[in-house]
Each structure stands twice: as C-alpha cells, then as structure tokens.
Design brief:
Layout lengths: L1 H51 L3 E5 L5 E4 L1 H7 L17 H8 L14 E6 L5 E13 L2 E10 L1 H66 L5 H14 L1 H32 L8 E3 L1 H11 L1 H5 L2 E7 L6 E3 L1 H22 L5 E9 L3 E8 L29 H11 L4 E6 L5 E8 L3 H13 L1
Parallel strand pairs: 7-9
Antiparallel strand pairs: 1-2, 1-5, 3-4, 4-5, 6-8, 9-10, 10-12, 11-12
Helix pairs in contact: 4-5, 4-6, 4-9, 6-7, 7-9, 9-10
C-alpha cells in the first residue's frame, strides 16, 4: 500500500510537471508565433520602405553580384531587374575601377555610409547619366554585404546648367555697356579713316581723269598747257605728299580696329559658350585672356592689370564655360574690393599661372582692403556677402568654389595681408580625378 501511494504521488508530480511544461510550451509557442509575426511585419514594412524609396537601393555581395534591386533602381536604370548580374554593368567604368569603388572599401569602412560621389551610370537604352552614389558595408556570417544608394542627378544637372548659363548671361548683360564701348572706339576710328579714304579717293579720281585728258591731248597733238595747269591745281587739292604719308597709316589703323573688334567678338563667343556637363581640354591662359578682353572697360578706370601667364601651361580637362565664369567672378571680386579701398586708377590686379607636376595654379592678387580674419572661413558660403542689401547676391565666390572643388576636384583658398591685399589661389588637376583613377587602375591591372 505504501508503494501505491508513493507511485500515486510521483504520478501526480509528473502530471503537474507535464501540465506546466505544456503551458510553458504553449506560452513559448505563442511568443514565437507573435515574434515571427512581428518579424514578418517588420520585413514587409522594411521591404515596403525599400521598394518605395525615392533613391535606388542596390545590395550586392563580395563578387559584385546584385542580390537586391529596388523599384527606384529599376526605374533609374530602365531595367525590370538586375538581380544576379554584376553591379559593374550599371556604371561606365573599367572592372578594376568598379572593384576599387564598390568592393575595395574606397567609399568607407564597415557600417559607415560614405560621402556622396558622382559616377556615370548606364541606362538600358545605352544612354549615360550622372548618378550620386554612396555605399556602405556590413559583415554577415563573416561575409561582406554591400549596399549602394543611387540618386539620378539628371534633373539637378539640367538645372545647374540652366543656372550657370543664366549667371553667365547676367555677367554678359552687366558687361554689355562696357563691351559696346570697347567695340565702338575702334569702329569709330575705322569709320573716320574710311571717310578720309573716301574723300581722298574722290580727289585722286579727279586727278586721274585729268591725266587721262592730258594723255589724250598729247596723242592728238592738241595744246597741253591747259591740261597741265589743271593737273597741277588738282594735285595741290589732293595734296599727294600728305596722302602718301597718311594712306598707309589710315589703312593700318583700320586693320587694327577691325582686329580689335574681332578679338572682342571672339572672346565674347568663347566666353559665352553654352553650359555643358561635357569636359574638354582647355587652354587656361587663353580663357584668362578672353576674360580680360571682355572685362577691359570694367577694369580700365579702376586698376592696372598685370599678367604672368606660364607659356608652358598644359591644357586642363574641365568645363570650359563654367571655368570662364569662375575667372570673371574672381576678377569682378578683385575690382569691387579695389573700388572700396583705392583711388581711381590706383588699383592693381595681378594674374599669374604656373604649371605643377599634375596640376595648374592660377593666382589672382589685388591691392584692395583684404578680407577680415573673422569672415575668411565664410567667403565661399552661398549667399554670404558684405555688400549692402541689393548690391550683391553672395553667389560669386560660392559658384567658384562649387566649380573648382566639387566639379573638378581642385582647391581654392584666399589669404590676406594685415596691410591689405588679397590673393586667391586656385589649383586644378590637369586631368579629372575619375579619369586619372581609371587609368591608374587599368595600368596596375597590366
């Protein structure tokens, strides 16, 4: 009997333990179900965010094979899907450069989103476009997973081109009166010389007619005394010695005036090139000379221009139209600084170019009041200006910084002396950085 009671108690304990285990299992199962539901909802939510994001989102493995390609990415590249293909196929770069950009950590370290970088993307129809790309990396099960965020810059680039062209046309408009004066001066003395030549030709034509009459009189044995007297009188009217002296000078002045007008028109044509995102090799010295030509009337009564342009300067691969605008903005900035500080005609602006190993340097120096130390760090900020309201937009130096630094991987800085005077130093790589890197990686592959 005691054994039966013992078994009974053991059975009750085991049954209670089983019920507790079943209750715990049911609780854990419910918790697991709820957790699974939550994970599923979060996955759906995350997927919805990824699919509806305005930026293209691409995830790829260590071999560059795409594992995730969201709806915006499909729209940007014009593809239904790119999963299973190489990310190299989406951009205009060599395999070596793409590996360096997307796989070798050039964009950043694990877990850190990188600064934006512009690359050239390839659409399914073969057209190219500028894309802003940033990547990040995370290690999962000791295998790296990469994510690239893609933003189509086509519309922004179009707006930048329009803004650049508008700023250029604004500059041309501001210079128009001075340019008209520059053209009017040579045109005026060309016109005066042509009138002089016209009157002189009429006198000479009369003299030639009398010579013809004399020749006829001599041939017919008619009296020639009257003809000779008339010729002498007409020769005195024409003043042949004076004409012999002045004709070459008048013609030379006409040619100089025409060449001056042609130079101004040519400079205006090159300066006013339509804005474009296509880079080309540019003669920086010539671009500076064109800028000085069209701004001559603006400078003449304010400052003396001195140039030291390195004749061995190599062409720079850049945006020609925007670089012209940069030089004009720097020149205008120097002129305005001198106007506030120097007496009329006492200003001095010196422009220097020189070659470095893989870059060119442009220095624009003026003898204006200088830049106060407390605002030096802000002069390239958009809309920052020390001018009175309505006198300046604060976009001139900001534009220069954007073109030199952001679009050409160059540098610009300014320094002033305590006694006055400011020097802006611009450094431009001879070849655009992306092109140089691609060539470097290509060479290393051989």
């Amino acid at each position: 009997m005691p054994n039966v009671e013992l078994l009974q108690r053991r059975f009750e304990r085991e049954r209670a333990a089983r019920k507790a285990a079943e209750a715990l299992l049911e609780q854990k199962s419910l918790e697991a179900y709820r957790a699974n539901q939550k994970i599923s909802e979060m996955a759906k939510h995350t997927q919805a965010i990824v699919e509806t994001a305005a930026e293209g989102i691409i995830s790829y493995d260590a071999d560059g094979i795409i594992r995730l390609f969201n709806r915006s990415a499909a729209s940007i590249f014009g593809l239904e899907s790119a999963i299973g293909t190489s990310i190299h196929h989406l951009f205009e770069c060599s395999d070596n450069l793409c590996d360096a950009l997307f796989l070798a950590g050039e964009f950043g370290t694990e877990g850190n989103s990188t600064n934006s970088r512009e690359l050239v993307g390839l659409r399914s129809n073969g057209r190219t476009f500028f894309a802003e790309v940033s990547t990040s990396r995370v290690d999962q099960n000791q295998s790296p997973v990469f994510t690239a965020l893609i933003r189509d810059l086509s519309k922004r680039k179009e707006l930048e081109v329009r803004l650049s062209q508008a700023q250029k046309m604004e500059s041309v408009g501001q210079l128009a009166a001075g340019i008209a004066h520059e053209i009017n001066t040579p045109i005026q003395f060309v016109g005066d010389n042509i009138k002089f030549l016209q009157g002189a030709f009429e006198d000479i034509a009369g003299l030639i007619e009398l010579y013809d009459q004399l020749a006829e009189a001599v041939t017919s044995s008619s009296p020639t005394r009257t003809c000779l007297d008339q010729i002498k009188e007409q020769a005195e009217i024409a003043d042949l010695p004076f004409l012999r002296e002045e004709f070459p000078s008048a013609i030379e002045q006409c040619l100089e005036g025409i060449e001056r007008v042609a130079t101004i028109v040519r400079a205006m044509k090159e300066f006013s090139l339509p804005a474009t995102e296509s880079k080309s090799a540019v003669d920086i010295n010539r671009a500076i000379e064109n800028t000085l030509t069209i701004a001559a009337s603006q400078v003449r009564d304010i400052a003396t221009i001195e140039t030291e342009l390195d004749p061995s300067l190599k062409p720079v691969v850049c945006l020609a139209g925007q670089m012209n605008q940069c030089f004009l903005n720097l020149l205008t900035n120097a002129i305005e600084a001198i106007e506030q500080h120097c007496e009329s005609g006492a200003g001095r602006i010196k422009i220097t170019t020189r070659s470095n190993e893989d870059s060119v340097e442009i220095r624009v120096e003026d003898n204006g009041p200088g830049i106060p130390a407390e605002i030096t760090s802000r002069i390239f900020d958009p809309f920052f200006t020390t001018k009175p309201v309505g006198k300046g937009t604060g976009q001139g130096l900001s534009f220069v910084y954007g073109v030199v630094v952001d679009k050409h991987d160059g540098s610009i800085h300014a320094h002033s002396l305590p006694a006055g005077g400011t020097t802006f130093v611009v450094s431009l790589p001879i070849h655009h950085q992306a092109a140089s890197k691609e060539q470097t990686h290509a060479n290393s592959a051989h």
